Amino acid sequence: MFDKNIYTERRQKLKKQVGSGLILLLGNEDSSINFKDNVYPFRQDSNFLYFFGLDRPGLAGVIDIDGDREILFGRDPSIDEIIWIGPQTSSFSGQADTVGVTEVQATDKLGSFLQHTGAKSQAIHFLPPYRPENILKLSAWLGINPAVLKERSSVKLIRAIVAQRSIKSGEEISEIETAVNITGEMHVAAMKGALAGMSEAQVAGMLHGIAVGGGGNLSFSSILTMNGQVLHNHYSTNTLRPGQMILCDCGAENAMHYAGDMTRTFPVSKKFSTVQRELYEVVLSAQEAAAEALTPGKLFRDIHFLAAEKLVDGLKAVGLMKGDPAEAVAAGAHTMFFQCGLGHMMGLDVHDMEDLGEEYVGYTDELKKSKEFGLKSLRLGRALEPGFVVTIEPGLYFIPELMDLRQSEKKFESFIHYDKLQSFRSFGGIRVEEDYVITPSGARLLGRPVPKTADDVEAMR
Amino acid sequence: MFDKNIYTERRQKLKKQVGSGLILLLGNEDSSINFKDNVYPFRQDSNFLYFFGLDRPGLAGVIDIDGDREILFGRDPSIDEIIWIGPQTSSFSGQADTVGVTEVQATDKLGSFLQHTGAKSQAIHFLPPYRPENILKLSAWLGINPAVLKERSSVKLIRAIVAQRSIKSGEEISEIETAVNITGEMHVAAMKGALAGMSEAQVAGMLHGIAVGGGGNLSFSSILTMNGQVLHNHYSTNTLRPGQMILCDCGAENAMHYAGDMTRTFPVSKKFSTVQRELYEVVLSAQEAAAEALTPGKLFRDIHFLAAEKLVDGLKAVGLMKGDPAEAVAAGAHTMFFQCGLGHMMGLDVHDMEDLGEEYVGYTDELKKSKEFGLKSLRLGRALEPGFVVTIEPGLYFIPELMDLRQSEKKFESFIHYDKLQSFRSFGGIRVEEDYVITPSGARLLGRPVPKTADDVEAMR
User: Fold this and answer.
1) Which domains does chain A have, with CATH numbers?
2) Could you tell me the pTM of the whole model?
3) What is the DSSP string of B173-242?
4) Short-list A56, A2, A59, A55, CA closest to A25
5) pLDDT tens digit string along B6-30?
6) In whole angstroms, how large is the CA radius of gyration of chain A?
7) Is B132 touching A (CB cutoff 8 A)?
8) Chain B 200-219, CB below 8 Å of chain A: which residues?
């Protein structure tokens, strides 16, 4: 946990920005797997963590701006709970004190508190709930139909939190860097340890073990697959076969829940095939060009386009595309191979603040998110600022269903050599991803470098 | 997946037992971690798996007994979903066919289906929901307040499912045995690999990796701790210290979601200390006596008492207890050291069918669950039948808070040597657990044997 002043200052800043009313930040509950008491690893809500720091289920924080009060709702454990989950290091009020909150109340009083104190307030600001248990609670307390809760959430509160959490402090960068380093260890272990004959799941399991052993957990379910063209394929009991490539996109979150997120693609065999190496280097040069272009003030959307043009350049050299790269990208022809976005913010969430809405996190009133295929998957478009942490992750994905669809639609015929595509139907996918912090003059790679060139990757096999 | 006839027969049997009305079995959804699209590993509902077999989020099964129809609600993926999650091996109706269901409807039609067809039915039988998303859905569809949904669930359906799922078929035993064998590998890896200087989390991570690599996942969050006296302690970044013991209670579920669940306790050093070995052997002899006593017709509660008496016997020899063991157990004095139950059913859930209610799974109209400290944590009390799969897991737990509480209450003074207890305040806890199937003549240990005697455990270190 950070020093208590950090949490106090964050709340002060939030109060000033929201101005009036009552801010309600709900912590998360345990989530049941297959019966109530069999639960997934607990993950606290990131907004609650950011402003109230406590990492236990069943809490809520209230900031009553008008009444100038900060209250944590929770409770002390019973003797039965001490037997089952162990003695707590301090009382609930002692825990609240570690994050600078002096007033505590019992959890079961929150509903009536909101109905009484909340009613006197100018507004109850709450965030769009992404967990159904919090939908149930908010609906019952505030008398709002579950179906419209999201649209009744506070845009003022969302904007204030996005403004604050987008700029990472020095302490946060240092936490993120520990997560990226655990993530790097996972990738080194995968490149060294994934051998033909093993299953994807065995390798994914090994990575999971490293993340847990790092004191936290995975920051998202690992993608470890020979079918890298399927963008969110996870892993299966498929056996690793020589000749195929493994796409490994995984990350750890550290004990403080800051995330890392990296991707490497490497051959099951000792070496890439000629064509695998050729396309790997296309992706790598796009990744490096995009990283090089990171500068405050520049639109991330433009860096996305730059990477897309680099990919088209490379695909022309390989003979899969033709025409002017800038025109191809303007027409969207690159989305045959690069269907998603170049990257996203990263912090307490691997897609940072995605619960608050990409329209607020990645875009502005002036720069709205596109609805076009491809661009609609770009989570971040707006101008970069020092303190932003972003991923850069271009890729090439050969999806037979999409090739067939676009060819049948007669789309992109002036940019794509459809005849040459046929031999790539089972090629798979390649992605290379790193994490960066934006500095006043450019950007800095986060974490210790992990082998990335084709030669360095092959040297790990 | 099993052969389609197995699912068809299970549903036939269920229809006969429930008799009339409409049975609604809701599958599970993905559960969000910190934003909607970052999800925990998907786990299908076990009742849905048992009767409808399909292992994907967002499905529901309806058995209209009066109308003689079986319907699976779901849908085919869109092209966007194919890009992100990959091509499906067959259409939704093709998948339904693999479990013997010929009628499919779109998921978003389920609400109105229940309001129309359901209304004509004698009753809509649903199960007590343990996931908040299913509470929200049921509440909206059936117009029932979330707070009373559980009490409006169908006892008739619960009883029929418990009757069926309690008796494991040959195919199920074989699946459970693969899960127990993966679980055994986890324990061997822990006993071989947990070294002084590592953190609990590192060892837990390694076990997690083996479970995932086995093609499934953990059957529950591993308990791997030097504080074994805290019954549901998981693991921490504590460093393993020579002289302490590690209590490791963990299990895998296999690819079909059948569970394994075992516990071993072993020294961080190469050898147990004298007193650690003495108490380990007390627990082991109770474990073996209880396993030996498993026979159809016998109340599991009586085997629990038998194990408790064995523990008291051993604690008398060590000088911690006194008096007649049967009287001590009748008075509840053993709950100073053994605060929980001897074991539970195991199958598709590690605590099998716990979502349906322990009063139906572990008890009967004649044998009700006790509310007493200790016995209230015994999940299974009723008479054993061939085909039951159960765990046997006695333990000794030295909980300073409980010692102080009972001494201050002047409880159990004729059975406990309170003066001798003081030196055990930081002793920790010991548990030994195995899984068994009840046979017509007794019981059979499931899985390949894993070192269990103090000598055999030490030989692994």
Assistant:
1) 4-166 (3.40.350.10), 170-459 (3.90.230.10)
2) 0.95
3) HHHHHHHHHHHHHHHHHHHHH--TTSBHHHHHHHHHHHHHHTTSEESS--EEES-TTSTT----SPBP-T
4) A59
5) 999 999 999 999 999 999 999 999 9
6) 24
7) yes
8) 201-215
